[in-house]
Amino acid sequence: MATPSDVHQKSIEFDEVNLFSIDRAVYDWFNTKHATNIQGRRVPVMFGGWERFAQMQDNKQDDNLNRMRDPSGMLILPLISIRRGDVTYNVDRFVYKQADGSPRVQISRRVAMSNFDANEVTTIPWPDFVTIPYTITFWSSYVRHSNYFNDRIWQNAYPRDLTYKGYYFHAFIDSGTNENNEENYTDEERIIRSSFTMTVDGYIL
């Protein structure tokens, strides 16, 4: 029968989780895991939104945007932009840290075949939980493309694979709006904009 020996502690290395980690999880979900393909073209995804589409058209200094332009300098639609909203701390899940560093989250336990050693129980610090809204905007020139993206969004309103380096985040899409510039009756390019709010319950570790 195994008997515990002196208490030992050993530091372990693990990937930290920060706001960039959550941003990247959202970006990868739309850009890689659930990429939108229309007419044989994978719709590009950009992180960071603009209040007006004209600002995107006039920005000639962004190399990422320049790769998405046609020979006349206009952005090739459709495309997806992602903008992070205000981060809210989840006070309901806050726990004061004790002098010994507890509480901790146990991530693994191994039954000892001999005296206990430092590798029997592995823990990480208690996370700081946050709630983050993201605005997902689909820019297009055709209603059928917008409808296609709308269908895909609502079919995945509760993503189960929002991850970054093995860390999982809970998320849900709970609202959507559609706007266009057809009422302007000008020579502007026709723009249809569909925006959705994805709320992510994440954590900082």
Task: Looking at this protein, list some descriptive labels.
single chain, 205 residues, alpha+beta, 6-stranded mixed β-sheet, two-stranded antiparallel ribbon, 4 helices, 33% strand, elongated, disordered N terminus
Form type: elongated
Average of the residue pLDDT scores: 77
> What is the tally of beta strands?
12
Instruction: Pick out the low-confidence regions.
Output: 1-6, 50-55
Counting helices, strands and paired strands, the structural category is alpha+beta
Strand residue content = 25-35%
> What order do the helices and strands follow?
HEEEHHEEEEEHEEEE
User: What fraction, in percent, of the residue positions are helical?
Assistant: 10-25%
Radius of gyration: 23 Å
Biggest beta sheet attributes: 6 strands, mixed
Total DSSP helices: 4
Taking the alpha carbons of the first and last residues, their distance comes to 36 Å
What features would you describe in this structure?
It is a single chain. This protein has 205 residues and is of the alpha+beta class. It is 19% helix and 33% strand. The strands form four sheets. Strands 3, 4, 5, 8, 11 and 12 form a six-stranded mixed β-sheet that branches. It has a two-stranded antiparallel ribbon with strand order 1-2. The longest helix has 15 residues, at 19-33. The radius of gyration is 23 Å and the shape is elongated.
